[in-house]
Amino acid sequence: MGDLWAFSPEPRGLFTDDRLPPLQSLSNPNPPTIGALQWQRAEQTVQEIIREVQPTEVSEERRKVVVDYVQRLIKLRVGCEEISIFPFGSVPLKTYLPDGDIDLTAFGGQTVEDTLAYEVYSVLEEEDQNRDAEFVVKDVQLIHAEWVKLVKCLVQNIVVDISFNQLGGLCTLCFLEQ
Q1: Beta carbons within 8 Å of 75's beta carbon, 6+ residues apart
Q2: What is the 3-state secondary structure (H, E, C) of 108-158?
Q3: Nearest to 20 by CA among 38, 40, 44, 1
Q4: Backbone φ, ψ for residue 28 (5° rounding)
Q5: Closest to 162 in 3D by CA, of 53, 110, 89
Q6: Mean pLDDT of 61-65
Q7: Torsion over CA: 8, 10, 16, 18 (sign)
């Protein structure tokens, strides 16, 4: 508790130059009073942060090939033409962080949700054991949450979460893309 004085709204000599305004003005600055130099510095800082966390072409391609691989693997191994697997969330919106996961949802037509979840889990478990697999799959888990079944695994060291028959994520994606 002894260091709380550093967060006091009154300056206590923490900053000896005028790079930063007093803390009280940071909480609700009046935009017309912010100088052009401060705006320019703020914009540069924001651009630096965005450059650091925005997806790169390499990370986009990596996620694309992982999504394609998981889609192909499940469709071929489960053996049901009616299965559709869609990415949703941060990957298709390109808003993921450098270590962000891939969210997929699988729709199985007449296949019951529980059955599809177990089949996908089994396919990924087999791939985890396959030394000749196209990609490294590991740490496969089947999670029984109250409202949704989820298969979670690592593919090429990217976390992949697969939910089943969940329209909410796709509806949100469609809404945000419009």
Answers
A1: 81, 83, 85
A2: CCCCCHHHHHHHHHHHHHHHHHCCCCCCCEEEEEEEECCCCEEEEEEECCE
A3: 38
A4: -155, 75
A5: 89
A6: 90
A7: positive
Do you know the residue count of the chain? 178
Report d(CA 108, CA 131) in Å as an integer: 28
Structure tokens at 87: 């990415």
Q: Give, to the nearest 10 degrees, the angle between helix 113-129 and helix 57-78.
A: 110
Give the global pTM.
Answer: 0.67
Contacts 24+ apart (CB under 8 A), 132-135: 134/69, 135/66, 135/69
Query: How high does pLDDT run on average in the chain?
Result: 77
| Terminal Cα distance for the chain, rounded | 48
Distance CA 17, CA 11 (A): 12
R_g over Cα of the chain: 24
What are the tens digits of pLDDT across the range 26-39?
Answer: 566 677 788 888 88
pLDDT 10s digits, 117-158: 899 999 999 999 999 999 999 999 999 877 778 999 999 999
Cβ atoms of 90 and 62 closer than 8 Å: no
